[in-house]
């Protein structure tokens, strides 16, 4: 069946469910439906370890009876099952407590334009080719250096799917999408030291993935570079968060400015709108309509239209991120962030990665973070780390078993530079980040 016809069929199911919900007594209703076909192949020591096929679909519906909400979901898309799901949702709504903030997003916020964002690049889910790709990556890693002695495996994943959202305001829209990824992780040994590292590539278009050989060699190179890792003494020094992990810092910022954290008063950035959080040179823009973008969408999970937005303006907190519920709690309106953010583009200072090392002089280049020691309420930050000790702008030796600690407010304000060589494999596109000073807890 052609993808366009599949999309129409799903929209028809959503429309039928919404009409049924109103017949059963719902004053408002919304439904979302997804369908995904995929393949996942993993290899270990150049032998096939696992092959999985997925062919999943499901519908979720939320109904509102006045200010009471009920929800239900089903993977069975037969008429009987869909009818039962609607009836259960309405029954639940009748018995839940009233909440003045519940209900659909305002009708005038609904998306009305649905441009083609180039998110769908289908190709056959070919098992043999997937196996070949995974093994090729692992082989390239194992042959890269004699110190690569073992493998944690390689994985190839391909998913083709579609998403439809509709509600009783009249929106009933959806789009197909694809996503492909390849990863490889290997283990290296030198004397009595063992280290591991990995590499990966991801894209909506399989033709734009890095080659299997490149992924395997990158994983091996990263592993070999970590051999001979040392502990270092406790110190207060500058650090660089490598671009591969730098987006995590802005991930904490997302949590701190999300409406849910604000109305619960559980964010260190409460009452900070318009205030200086980052250096004056730093801007962050949200661009939901990037072609082929991993986080592109013309509407959020509540049907609210997405829009180009300035998130950070000359270092100042320019906007909070609201869903419908959190917006009503805070007496404002949704700005299209139900379900997450949409392609954040982080500004840079024009430094290459080599320039950043020179700018830092002496300090720690962090290439791996471990643990979840981040408190969004206070901003306190403490995570395990590994990377490389740098002196006079030159990498000296690998480092492990250290903790980096500070406070997010100080870390944001202390960003001294951001590299121009960006990692574009996620919803936040940023280069490596130089922070002027953090506490490094070592031996």
TrEMBL record:
<comment type="similarity">
    <text>Belongs to the peptidase U62 family.</text>
</comment>
<dbReference type="InterPro" id="IPR035068">
    <property type="entry name" value="TldD/PmbA_N"/>
</dbReference>
<keyword id="KW-0378">Hydrolase</keyword>
<dbReference type="InterPro" id="IPR002510">
    <property type="entry name" value="Metalloprtase-TldD/E_N"/>
</dbReference>
<feature type="domain" description="Metalloprotease TldD/E N-terminal">
    <location>
        <begin position="29"/>
        <end position="93"/>
    </location>
</feature>
<dbReference type="InterPro" id="IPR036059">
    <property type="entry name" value="TldD/PmbA_sf"/>
</dbReference>
<dbReference type="InterPro" id="IPR045570">
    <property type="entry name" value="Metalloprtase-TldD/E_cen_dom"/>
</dbReference>
<dbReference type="Pfam" id="PF19289">
    <property type="entry name" value="PmbA_TldD_3rd"/>
</dbReference>
<feature type="domain" description="Metalloprotease TldD/E C-terminal">
    <location>
        <begin position="235"/>
        <end position="442"/>
    </location>
</feature>
<dbReference type="InterPro" id="IPR045569">
    <property type="entry name" value="Metalloprtase-TldD/E_C"/>
</dbReference>
<dbReference type="InterPro" id="IPR047657">
    <property type="entry name" value="PmbA"/>
</dbReference>
<keyword id="KW-0482">Metalloprotease</keyword>
<feature type="domain" description="Metalloprotease TldD/E central">
    <location>
        <begin position="120"/>
        <end position="227"/>
    </location>
</feature>
<protein>
    <submittedName>
        <fullName>Metalloprotease PmbA</fullName>
    </submittedName>
</protein>
<keyword id="KW-0645">Protease</keyword>
<dbReference type="Pfam" id="PF19290">
    <property type="entry name" value="PmbA_TldD_2nd"/>
</dbReference>
<dbReference type="Pfam" id="PF01523">
    <property type="entry name" value="PmbA_TldD_1st"/>
</dbReference>
<dbReference type="GO" id="GO:0008237">
    <property type="term" value="F:metallopeptidase activity"/>
</dbReference>
<dbReference type="GO" id="GO:0005829">
    <property type="term" value="C:cytosol"/>
</dbReference>
<dbReference type="GO" id="GO:0006508">
    <property type="term" value="P:proteolysis"/>
</dbReference>
């Amino acid at each position: 069946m052609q993808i366009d016809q599949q999309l129409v069929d799903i929209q028809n199911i959503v429309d039928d469910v919404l009409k049924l919900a109103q017949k059963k007594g719902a004053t408002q209703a919304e439904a979302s439906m997804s369908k995904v076909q995929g393949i996942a192949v993993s290899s270990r020591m150049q032998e096939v370890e696992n092959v999985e096929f997925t062919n999943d679909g499901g519908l979720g519906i939320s109904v509102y009876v006045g200010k009471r909400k009920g929800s239900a979901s089903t993977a069975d898309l037969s008429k009987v099952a869909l009818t039962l799901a609607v009836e259960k949702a309405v029954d639940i709504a009748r018995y839940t407590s009233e909440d003045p903030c519940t209900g659909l997003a305002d009708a005038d916020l609904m998306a009305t334009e649905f441009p083609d964002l180039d998110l769908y690049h289908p190709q056959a889910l070919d098992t043999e080719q997937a196996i070949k790709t995974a093994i090729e990556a692992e082989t390239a890693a194992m042959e890269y250096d004699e110190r690569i002695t073992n493998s944690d495996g390689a994985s190839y994943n391909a998913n083709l799917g579609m998403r439809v959202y509709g509600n009783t305001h009249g929106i009933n829209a959806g789009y197909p999408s694809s996503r492909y990824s390849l990863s490889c992780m290997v283990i290296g040994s030198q004397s009595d030291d063992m280290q591991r590292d990995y590499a990966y590539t991801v894209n909506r278009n399989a033709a734009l993935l890095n080659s299997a050989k490149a992924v395997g060699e990158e994983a091996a190179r990263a592993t070999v570079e970590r051999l001979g890792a040392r502990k270092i003494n406790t110190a207060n020094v500058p650090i660089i968060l490598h671009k591969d992990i730098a987006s995590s810092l802005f991930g904490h910022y997302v949590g701190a400015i999300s409406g849910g954290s604000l109305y619960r008063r559980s964010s260190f950035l409460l009452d900070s709108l318009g205030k200086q959080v980052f250096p004056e040179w730093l801007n962050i823009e949200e661009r939901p309509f990037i072609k082929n973008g991993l986080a592109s969408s013309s509407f959020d999970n509540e049907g609210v239209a997405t829009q180009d937005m300035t998130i950070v303006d000359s270092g100042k907190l320019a906007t909070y991120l609201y869903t419908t519920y959190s917006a009503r709690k805070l007496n404002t309106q949704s700005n299209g962030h139900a379900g997450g953010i949409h392609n954040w583009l982080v500004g840079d200072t024009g430094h290459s990665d080599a320039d950043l090392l020179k700018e830092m002089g002496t300090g720690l280049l962090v290439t791996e973070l471990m643990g979840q020691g981040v408190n969004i309420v206070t901003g306190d930050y403490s995570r395990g780390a590994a990377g490389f000790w740098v002196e006079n702008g030159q990498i000296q030796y690998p480092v492990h078993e250290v903790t980096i600690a500070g406070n997010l407010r100080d870390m944001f304000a202390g960003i001294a530079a951001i590299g121009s060589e960006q990692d574009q494999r996620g919803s936040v596109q940023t280069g490596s980040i130089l922070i002027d000073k953090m506490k490094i807890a070592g031996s």
